[in-house]
Amino acid sequence: MKEMGNIKKRVLMLCLFGITMQLVFHGGTSQNTPLRRYLRENNSKEPPLHNYAVKLNNESNHKLVVDNGIISVTLSNPEGYVIGISYNGIDNILEAINEEQDRGYLDVVWNELGKPSIFQRIHGTKFSVITIEENLVEVSFLRTWESSMNGTNVPINIDTRYIFRENDSGFYSYAIFDRPKGLPAVEVDQIRIVFKLQESRFNYMAIEDNMQRRMPTMRDRKKGQDLAYPEAILLTNPSDPQFRGEVDDKYQYSIENKDNKLHGWISVDSDSPMGFWMITPSNEFRNGGPNKQDLTSHVGPITLSMFMSTHYAGKEITMSFEEGETYKKVFGPVFIYLNSATTKDNSLSLWSDAEDQLSKEVKSWPYDFPKSQDFVKPNERGKVLGRLLIQDRYINGGRFQYANNAYVGLALPGDAGSWQRESKGYQFWTRSDSKGYFTIENIVPGVYNLYAWVPSFIGDYKYNTSILVTQGGVMNLDKLVYSPPRNGPTLWEIGIPDRSAAEFYVPDPYPTLMNKLYNDQPKEKFRQYGLWERYVDLYPNDDLVYTVGVNKFNKDWFFAHVTRNIGNKTYGPTTWQIIFEHEHDIFSGNYTLQLALASAKDAELQVRFNDPSINPPHFTTGQIGGDNSIARHGMHGLYWLFSIDVPSDHFVKGKNTIYMRQSRAINPFQGVMYDYIRLESPCT
Predict the structure, then answer these.
(1) CB within 8 A of 422, min separation 6: which ones?
(2) Where primarily located (predicted)?
(3) Which of 84, 219, 353, 388 has the fewest CB atoms lying closer than 10 Å?
């Protein structure tokens, strides 16, 4: 028994010695941590991690800390939520009173076919170290879909990645969406990254040079008065009296994809001001093309990176997957940038510094440091160049014109103009120069169509052959010619063909429902709340009548063809009239009414010629649109073009009237916005 006791003592001493040596040489971490597995799988000897510029610590059971010497980011493990960002002496600039899953996260809005939408934060189930180098760390939080998740989790494998580099005052984030074979059908309406900052610290929001201001708080919103929809609040009892009587609405700060590159917040009242910025160096992974509008930053304080959404477009632009359909796409990376100033007086210089950082990120795109094989590196991408010309036989004698400042882009194959309703693939856009030359660079290899639209001309251009972009390939398309829709010479026109209603009359807002930021910015007046209600103020009894040659569209054509408020929360259809004189005898053949719409929301536009009561109407769009731009302070949504043949017997010599009736009228937000209207006489 004594000998057995001695043996037990020796075994115990050996165990203690082994544990001690493990603590000495391995810092107490488990051999099964993702970091250790990464080192073993890459046949690496354990590096002197304390000498690395970027340090990764995953010793906590549920938290991972990455520190590059400038910022320190705490991530939940294995979920991948950003639960803390330490910077410039502040322990956590995120809102620490929120639950850990409600500070920094990736979310998706999705639905099974025919069922209601589901909002879901993406909750990783597997953490792994993708790479750990002296100057760079990339980590992954993967959520793999399983059949047991059917109906509760979006059926897509989602890998959320974070990249930390030496000397970066910030970090990168991107997401890989992957649908292998066998997954159920699904519709995806929104993919975004969200950050919720300290409310007591960040109080100044900046989106563009002319879109910056001190902001109210979320508490101010909660104490305010609800308006026509949940996003719009009248501030009745704000903590800062300067906001009393203003409207706060996140959609007042939406901008187009092409401009949505930089936005964020500044702590202007701090003795050491800091800025928090979302930098998006490329739009290639966003949906709907360069002119689609989307959210930026708003009261919270909240900063978003919108990867895709149905905002200002509706369900027509949703990502719809059939059962078993495969798919893979990389969203991002985007750069979360932090900066600081030494004094309050320099706080607004943080915006200029962030603009400089944006310029650096754009010049570095596409990045060469993400480790995912699905992110296509710079030397693996292609280029397409060419020249776009315009030929309209009724302008300049049919001679070629330069497609000046045209939007030219590549998107998945489809019909002309289909790019604005496309959400699955990558899109690559540029603007042509004054002589129509264009170059599209950094294209992910694949098969595309080339599309274009040209300001001052109606319609959409599509190159008649699919384009195969190869790794490192350069394709010169030489001279392309776009012949915009045209059947005859112009008799008259209303508006400017620019896919926007901005040139039409935008009324002054109600004095009690204003956002003061836009009071002295006439071009931004459309962002004010409640403008749709001004129609009945301007036309209390009769609807709009526009006489060609007498009225001016910038003064006399209301920006939106809306319903009429007839009281008791009921609304009626409205019929606008276009009156024109046909001075000469009527031509034989068909006239053409080119009707371009900049937006439509649950509308039906009926067109009648010289007979307001004929039924059915001479033309109807049918029920169209879901972009909700009227309510969301947009000057456009999706673009619609209708070329309407009008038999000559519908017109008479002398006075003629075209009746435009928006017949659907259940709420104040139904209607259309016009882009441009043109009447063409028969071809002579």
Answers:
(1) 287, 288, 289, 317, 411, 412, 414
(2) secreted
(3) 219
